[in-house]
Design a protein that fits this description.
Number of helices: 2
Distance between the termini: 14 Å
Low-confidence stretches: none
Structural class: alpha+beta
Strand order of the largest sheet: 3-2-1-5-4
Length: about 90
């Protein structure tokens, strides 16, 4: 999965396992996950991204969508691309 805050911002990449645990993440995603209450090796704590990851895995297709995720007092406009892995 990848998320991009703005077109001029770099991609942020993470990987979720079959149980929905965040197993790899760039620092920006790991920080957002932690601020949302997620722990290291725990379930992805950003519901908007987690639901796209589950849908992509269930359907077996790539899904790209805009989502808004809260980060403290601000909202983040993200473009999320979820791709199932084997």
């Amino acid at each position: 999965m990848s998320a991009q805050v703005r077109p001029e911002m770099p991609l942020v990449i993470g990987r979720v396992d079959r149980e929905g645990r965040l197993v790899a993440a760039d620092p920006a995603l790991a920080g957002l996950h932690a601020r949302a209450g997620g722990g290291e090796g725990g379930a992805l704590a950003i519901p908007q991204i987690a639901s796209l990851a589950r849908l992509s895995r269930r359907l077996g297709i790539v899904i790209s969508r805009a989502v808004i995720a809260g980060d403290g007092e601000r909202d983040l406009d993200l473009w999320v691309r979820a791709e199932p892995s084997e």
